[in-house]
User: Which sequence fits this backbone?
C-alpha cells in the first residue's frame, strides 16, 4: 500500500525525473539525427557512392559545404575551377577504376583576374588553389592532388600565377601534391606560402612534385616578414625545370632531403636566417646551386653539374659543412666578402675554382680534389 | 759479467732490427713524385716512368699539371694527385700522337685505355686518387668499329680502389667509357669505385663486368656523381654479371641511369634524375633495388632478365615526375612493394599475370594506374 501511495514530494520528484528523462530522450534523438552528419564522408566527382557519402560536383562547392575539419575525397578527373578554401579541412585525391589523378586546371571559361595579393611582395596573384581567411582557425591539408597551370597565359604584366597559395595567417600541410605548368609567360610558381602577420604560423610542404614552372618564377616559395613569423618545413620534394628558383625561402625552418634538378638557379635560395639546408640533392643547374643570404646552416648536401655550387652573400656568418660537390665551375663562392662562420668538412672534386671571391686567409679543413684553382680572389666565379 | 753479455747481445739484436727496418722502410713506405712540387721526394718526369720504377706498394704523388701520356700500371701501388701552389688538378690527357689500343676486354672489345691496370705482379691493389683523366681530342690509332676508349680500365685479374677521380670527355663516337672494370676467369677480385666525378662521355660513365658464373668480380660503386648526355645516349652506370653494391650515387642525364644486366647486386640510396627519354633503373636477375629517389625520367624502373624465381625486388623507392613508373615487361616473379610513386602518366605497364604492384605501393597522381596486359 505504501508503495502505491505517492507523497507530494515523490510526485514532484517523479515529474522532475520525467522531465529529465524527456530531455535525455530528446538529446538522444538529436544525437541520433546529427551523428550521421558528423560521420559522413565527403567526395567530389561521384566515384564514392552510398548513404555514408555526401557528394559534390565541384571542389569549390565541397570546400564551402562541409563542416570545419572535414576530409574531402576527390575522385580522379579534371576539375577546371579556381578553389578558395576558408575553413580548416583536408583535401585528398583518391584512386578509382584504374585512375589516380585528380587535376585542378584553369577554367577556360572563367576569369583570369588575380584573386589575392601577396602581403610580402604586394604582387597580385592568380592562385589556382587559395587558402585564405581560414575560420575557425585550423590547418588546411592538401594531399595527392595535381594542380596544372596550363592555360593561364595572362602574362607577367597581369599577374603572378601560383598553383597553390597559402595566404597570411594560414597553416597546414601540402603532401604528395603535383604542381606543374605554372608558366604564365614566365611568371609562375608551383607552391607559394607566406605569412605577413605578426602571429606565427607553421606550414609543411613535403613529398611533392613540382615541375615546368615559369622562368621568372620558381618551384616553391616560403615568404615571411622579418623577423620570420612563418616556420616552414620543405622536405622530400622533387623539383625539375621549375623556373628561375627551385626553392626560395625567407621563412624560418628547414629545407631538407629535396631533389632539385634543371632549374635556372639558384636551386635553393635561403634568404633569411635561421634556416637549415640539409641533405638536399642539387644537380644540373647552370647558375647557383644553394645561395644563402644569412647566417644559415648548409650541411650534408650533394651538388653536381652546377655552375656555382654554394654562394654566400658577402660577410655572412654561415656554416657550410660536410657538403659534397662534384663537377662544378665554382665550389663555394664568397662573393668578395668574408665569412665568420664555419667552412669545414666539405669535399670538392672536379672544379675550375674551389673557393672563389675569397679575400681571407687560407681555408683549411676541407677535402679538395681535381680543382684547378683552390682559392681565388678575383671575380672568377659566375 | 754474464748479464752484461746478455744485455749486449739484446742490444745488438735491437740495433740489427732497427737497421733492417731502416733499410726496408724506404722501399715499403717511400713516396715518389711526378713533377717538381715537393723538393724532398725522388722525382720522375712522367707518370709512366714512375709506375715502372717504384717498388711495389709505393705511393706516387702527382703534382698539378697536364701529363700527355697513356699510362699502364702493372704493379701494386697508389697514384695520388697532390695540391701545390693553389692548384690541385693533375690531368692525364691523350698524347698528341693519339692513343693506342692497349688491351682486349673479356667482352672481346679492343680498348684504348688512358690509364690501364693490367697484369699486376706481385698481386696487390692499385689505388687511384685525386687525378683527372681527360679524353678530350683523343684519337685512337687504328680506330675501327670495334675500338673503344676508356679513361680508366682495370683489366681482368686486378683489384683496387678508384677514389675521388675525375673522368671526363671520353668521347670517341659511341664508344667512350669513363671507368671500366672487369674480371674474367681466375681468382675473385674486388674493386671499389667511389666518390668520382664522371661526365661528358659518349657511351658509359662507369661499367663493371664479369663473364663468369658465379661472378668473379665484387664491385662497390658508391658516392659517384655521373652526368650523361642524352644526345650521347649515355648509360651512366652499368654492371653486368658482377656481385656487389651500387649505393649513394647521383646519376643525372643520359639515356639510362643505372643498369644491372644480371647479378647479385644491391642498388640502394641512389638519386637518378633528368633522363627524359630513357630509363632510371633497369633491373636484371638477382637485383635488390631499394630506397632510391628517381625523378624527371621517362621510365623509372624497367625489368628484364629470365623471370626465374626468386626474381628481383623493388622496395622503398620514391619516384616523381615520370611517364612510366614500372615497366614489368611481362617478367614474372618480380616484387614491387612499399614504394611511393607520385606524378606519372602511367603506373604499371605490361604487368605479368598474377603479379601486380597494385595495392602494395603508395601511389598519387597517376593518370592510368595499369596499362597493357601480358599474354
Assistant:
Amino acid at each position: 500500500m505504501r508503495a502505491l501511495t505517492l507523497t507530494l514530494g515523490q510526485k514532484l520528484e517523479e515529474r522532475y525525473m520525467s522531465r529529465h528523462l524527456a530531455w535525455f530522450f530528446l538529446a538522444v534523438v538529436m544525437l541520433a539525427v546529427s551523428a550521421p552528419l558528423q560521420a559522413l564522408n565527403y567526395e567530389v566527382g561521384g566515384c564514392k557512392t552510398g548513404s555514408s557519402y555526401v557528394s559534390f560536383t565541384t571542389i569549390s562547392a565541397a570546400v564551402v559545404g562541409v563542416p570545419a575539419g572535414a576530409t574531402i575525397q576527390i575522385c580522379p578527373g579534371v576539375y577546371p575551377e579556381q578553389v578558395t578554401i576558408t575553413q580548416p579541412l583536408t583535401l585528398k585525391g583518391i584512386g578509382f577504376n584504374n585512375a589516380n589523378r585528380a587535376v585542378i586546371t584553369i577554367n577556360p571559361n572563367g576569369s583570369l583576374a588575380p584573386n589575392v595579393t601577396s602581403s610580402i611582395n604586394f604582387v597580385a596573384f592568380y592562385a589556382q588553389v587559395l587558402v585564405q581567411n581560414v575560420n575557425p582557425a585550423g590547418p588546411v591539408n592538401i594531399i595527392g592532388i595535381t594542380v596544372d597551370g596550363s592555360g593561364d597565359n595572362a602574362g607577367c604584366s597581369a599577374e603572378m600565377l601560383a598553383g597553390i597559395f597559402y595566404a597570411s595567417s594560414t597553416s597546414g600541410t601540402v603532401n604528395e601534391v603535383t604542381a606543374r605548368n605554372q608558366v604564365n609567360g614566365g611568371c609562375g610558381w608551383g607552391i607559394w606560402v607566406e605569412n605577413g602577420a605578426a602571429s606565427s604560423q607553421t606550414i609543411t610542404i613535403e613529398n611533392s612534385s613540382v615541375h615546368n614552372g615559369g622562368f621568372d618564377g620558381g618551384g616553391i616559395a616560403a615568404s615571411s616578414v622579418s623577423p620570420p613569423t612563418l616556420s616552414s618545413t620543405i622536405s622530400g620534394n622533387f623539383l625539375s625545370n621549375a623556373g628561375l628558383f627551385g626553392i626560395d625561402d625567407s621563412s624560418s625552418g628547414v629545407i631538407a632531403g629535396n631533389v632539385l634538378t634543371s632549374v635556372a638557379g639558384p636551386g635553393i635560395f635561403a634568404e633569411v636566417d635561421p634556416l637549415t639546408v640539409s641533405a638536399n640533392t642539387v644537380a644540373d643547374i647552370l647558375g647557383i646551386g644553394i645561395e644563402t643570404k644569412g647566417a644559415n646552416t648548409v650541411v650534408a648536401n650533394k651538388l653536381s653539374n652546377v655552375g656555382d655550387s654554394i654562394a654566400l652573400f658577402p660577410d655572412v656568418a654561415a656554416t657550410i659543412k660536410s657538403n659534397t660537390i662534384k663537377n662544378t665551375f665554382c665550389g663555394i663562392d664568397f662573393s668578395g666578402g668574408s665569412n665568420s662562420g664555419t667552412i669545414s668538412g666539405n669535399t670538392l672534386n672536379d672544379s675550375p675554382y674551389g673557393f672563389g671571391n675569397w679575400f681571407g686567409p687560407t681555408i683549411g679543413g676541407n677535402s679538395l680534389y681535381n680543382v684547378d684553382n683552390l682559392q681565388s680572389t678575383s671575380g672568377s666565379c659566375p | 759479467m754474464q748479464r752484461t753479455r746478455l744485455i749486449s747481445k739484446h742490444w745488438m739484436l735491437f740495433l740489427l732490427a732497427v737497421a733492417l727496418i731502416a733499410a726496408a722502410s724506404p722501399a715499403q713506405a717511400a713516396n715518389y713524385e711526378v713533377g717538381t712540387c715537393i723538393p724532398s721526394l725522388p722525382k720522375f718526369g712522367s707518370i709512366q716512368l714512375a709506375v715502372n720504377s717504384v717498388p711495389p706498394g709505393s705511393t706516387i704523388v702527382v703534382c698539378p699539371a697536364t701529363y700527355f701520356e697513356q699510362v699502364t700500371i702493372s704493379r701494386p701501388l697508389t697514384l695520388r694527385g697532390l695540391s701545390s701552389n693553389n692548384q690541385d688538378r693533375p690531368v692525364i690527357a691523350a698524347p698528341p700522337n693519339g692513343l693506342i689500343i692497349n688491351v682486349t676486354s673479356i667482352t672481346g672489345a679492343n680498348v684504348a685505355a688512358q690509364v690501364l691496370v693490367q697484369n699486376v705482379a706481385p698481386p696487390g691493389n692499385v689505388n687511384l686518387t685525386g687525378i683527372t683523366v681527360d679524353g678530350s681530342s683523343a684519337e685512337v690509332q687504328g680506330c675501327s668499329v670495334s675500338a673503344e676508349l676508356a679513361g680508366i680500365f682495370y683489366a681482368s685479374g686486378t683489384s683496387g680502389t678508384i677514389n675521388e677521380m675525375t673522368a671526363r670527355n671520353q668521347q670517341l663516337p659511341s664508344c667512350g667509357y669513363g671507368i671500366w672494370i672487369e674480371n674474367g676467369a681466375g681468382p675473385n677480385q674486388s674493386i671499389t669505385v667511389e666518390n668520382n666525378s664522371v661526365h661528358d662521355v659518349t657511351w658509359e660513365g662507369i661499367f663493371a663486368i664479369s663473364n663468369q658464373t658465379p661472378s668473379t668480380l665484387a664491385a662497390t660503386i658508391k658516392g659517384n656523381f655521373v652526368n650523361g648526355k642524352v644526345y650521347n645516349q649515355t648509360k651512366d652506370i652499368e654492371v653486368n654479371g658482377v656481385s656487389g653494391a651500387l649505393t649513394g650515387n647521383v646519376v643525372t642525364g643520359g639515356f639510362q641511369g643505372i643498369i644491372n644486366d644480371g647479378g647479385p647486386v644491391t642498388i640502394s640510396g641512389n638519386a637518378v634524375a633528368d633522363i627524359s627519354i630513357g630509363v632510371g633503373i633497369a633491373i636484371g636477375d638477382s637485383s635488390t633495388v631499394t630506397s632510391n629517389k628517381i625523378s624527371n625520367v621517362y621510365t623509372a624502373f624497367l625489368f628484364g632478365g629470365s623471370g626465374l624465381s626468386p626474381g628481383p625486388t623493388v622496395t622503398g623507392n620514391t619516384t616523381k615526375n615520370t611517364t612510366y613508373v614500372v615497366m614489368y615487361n611481362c617478367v614474372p616473379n618480380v616484387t614491387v612493394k612499399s614504394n611511393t610513386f607520385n606524378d606519372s602518366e602511367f603506373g604499371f605497364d605490361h604487368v605479368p599475370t598474377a603479379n601486380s604492384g597494385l595495392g602494395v605501393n603508395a601511389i598519387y597522381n597517376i593518370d592510368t594506374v595499369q596499362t597493357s596486359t601480358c599474354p
Summary: The CA atoms of residues 287 and 312 of chain B lie 5 Å apart. The mean pLDDT of chain B is 90. Chain B touches chain A through 46 residues (CB under 8 Å). Helices of chain B lie at 2-29, 47-53.
